[in-house]
Specification:
The protein is mostly beta strands. Helices cover about 10% and strands about 30% of the residues.
């Protein structure tokens, strides 16, 4: 009788390589999301309409089609207009 082979390859069964940390401002909340590959995916998962927030990585604004990298730290700022 041989040893049983694991059906999981490489440690854990969960893929955390695409986890993105999102800071929601002005609320000040932080959320971690798995599986968001583009900014549009991130906004869809959070039920946020494009154009209602600025999506910022570091000191750069991102567009909806911008790819997200593993362990990105993204800030969402509400767009406010007045007149």
């Amino acid at each position: 009788m041989g040893t049983a082979k694991s059906r999981w390859r490489g440690g854990t069964p969960f893929d955390t390589r695409s986890r993105v940390r999102v800071r929601l401002n002005p609320e000040g909340r932080c959320v971690d999301l798995d599986g968001a590959k583009r900014v549009s995916d991130l906004l869809n998962r959070l039920n946020i309409l494009p154009g209602t927030v600025l999506v910022i990585r570091g000191d750069k604004l991102l567009t909806e089609d911008a790819p997200l990298a593993a362990s990105d730290d993204i800030e969402l700022r509400s767009v406010v207009s007045g007149g």
